[in-house]
Amino acid sequence: MVLNAVRYGLPLALLLAGMVVWATSGRIGVAVGAMFISSATAVLLLNLLYRIGVEGDEERDREEAARRYFDEHGRWPDE
To answer: What is the 8-class DSSP label of residue 78?
Structure first.
């Protein structure tokens, strides 16, 4: 629960802050708001890339377990 709050709540908070700053300030506020929105996008994409990387680690662990099973039994686990 806390991880999801950080994973999705932080980009949402940055996005909302950027929209508020953009809407309530002058020309400088537009630039600052765009920076907030860009940082929200960056945080969200970094979280996505991290999840993709972790998924690859889990796949490698399953492959290693299948290889150990093959070494012990002489056949793949799904056969």
So the answer is: T
DSSP 12-32: HHHHHHHHHHHHHS-HHHHHH
Q: Is 79 helix (H, G, I), strand (E, B) or coil?
A: coil
d(CA 76, CA 79): 6
The model's pTM is 0.69
Q: How far apart are CA 72 and CA 7, in angstroms?
A: 41
Question: What tokens appear for 66 in the block?
Answer: 């299948």
Given a contact cutoff of 8 angstroms between Cβ atoms, the answer to whether 67 and 27 are in contact is no
- Name the residue among 13, 1, 22 with its Cα closest to residue 44: 13
Name, in order, each residue with C-beta under 8 angstroms of 23's C-beta and a sequence gap of 6 or more. Answer: 33
The pLDDT averaged over each successive group of 10 residues in the chain (79 residues) is 85 95 91 96 93 82 89 83
